[in-house]
Automatic annotation (TrEMBL):
GO MF annotations in UniProt: hydrolase activity, acting on carbon-nitrogen (but not peptide) bonds, in linear amides; peptidase activity
Annotated catalytic residues: 181
UniProt keyword Protease, yes or no: yes
Protein name: Isoaspartyl peptidase
A Pfam cross-reference name: Asparaginase_2
Gene Ontology biological process terms in this record: proteolysis
Organism: Hymenobacter qilianensis
The keyword Nucleotide-binding is annotated on this UniProt entry: no
Alphabetical keyword list: Autocatalytic cleavage, Hydrolase, Protease
């Protein structure tokens, strides 16, 4: 069914099992996802741009401590928060991104400013922060990004000597493993598409590691001729597969439907080589696809033709 406008969001994918989730926490995630969808929906139903809708949605995700982006970002090996984000406009494929930024409240808004107020696509720390301050975008002290849960994850990762993809399995107490990335894709009433992605990366990451989220074509992509995509999962695999752009290519060059193109990338290409995770997608007709090859993905949708919907597990 074609929709006048459509919005899909995600808050990360991975090994998310019911027996590791309390009813209270599950309710909190659903409430947060609803709040995100309402922010984007308010833009779209009033005739606003897809670009504004995805930014508004991701800002709410970044402001929530439940998700690994912005305020809820995980800790690096050095006890810092290094965040990545990207945004792309399907009208002309203009894009902006930031990588490794530390004290910016909403990296997605900085990424948009890079797209609109600079001659560049991707800026990295520390220059990206200088750019943000020059444009009066809000910053926060380290304490703003501190959550006890994320700090505990870092201590466990330091003890084991490994890295964790957000809620990785703990030897002390098994926890759901969630790939910590958030994102949104939208089609507005004017037929334009946009995508936005933001992340805090991996717990205990070192050496200024950067994942797929800020890489245009890997974790984020938008083109009115095909689709808008935001990915979440094991970033190194999504980068090698150029996953987001591959979906668009399957639509453009092979004439596949959005659903089939997404299925091929997530299940036939990524999954066999160990690329765990998923993506959200929308095409020019307002069709949505939210495939994932893990046991769960925090996700939600709303369109001009269908009510607000949120889900966590494969069976909702």
């Amino acid at each position: 069914m074609k929709s006048t406008f459509a919005l899909a969001i995600h808050g990360g994918a991975g090994t998310i099992s019911r027996d590791q989730m309390t009813p209270e926490k599950e309710q909190a995630y659903h409430a947060a996802l609803r709040q995100v969808l309402e922010a984007g929906h308010d833009v779209l139903r009033q005739g606003g741009a897809a670009l504004d809708a995805v930014e508004a949605s991701v800002r709410v995700l970044e402001d929530s401590p439940l998700f690994n982006a912005g305020r809820g970002a995980v800790f690096t090996h050095d006890g810092r928060h290094e965040m990545d984000a990207a945004i792309m406009d399907g009208r002309d494929r203009s894009a902006g991104a930031v990588a490794g930024v530390r004290n910016l409240q909403n990296p997605i808004s900085v990424a948009r400013m890079v797209m609109e107020k600079s001659d560049h696509v991707l800026l990295a720390w520390p220059g990206a922060e200088d750019f943000a301050r020059e444009h009066n975008l809000p910053t926060q002290p380290d304490e703003y990004f501190f959550t006890q849960h994320r700090h505990d994850q870092l201590q466990e990762a330091l003890e084991s000597g490994g890295i964790q993809l957000d809620h990785s399995e703990s030897k002390k107490a098994p926890q759901p493993k969630k790939m910590g990335t958030v994102g949104a894709v939208a089609r507005d009433q004017h037929g334009n598409l946009a995508a936005a992605t933001s992340t805090g990366g991996m717990t205990n990451k070192r050496y200024s590691r950067i994942g797929d989220s800020p890489i245009i074509g890997a974790g984020t992509f938008a083109d009115n001729r095909t689709c808008a995509i935001s990915c979440t999962g094991s970033g190194e695999y999504f980068m090698r597969a150029v996953a987001a752009y591959d979906v668009a290519c399957l639509i453009e060059y092979r004439g596949l439907s959005l659903a089939e193109a997404c299925r091929i990338v997530v299940h036939d290409k990524l999954e066999p080589v160990g690329g765990e995770g998923g993506l959200i997608a929308v095409d020019g007709a307002g069709n949505l696809a939210l495939p994932f090859n893990s046991s769960g993905m925090y996700r939600g949708t709303i369109t001009s033709e269908s009510p607000l919907f949120t889900a966590i597990y494969e069976d909702k």
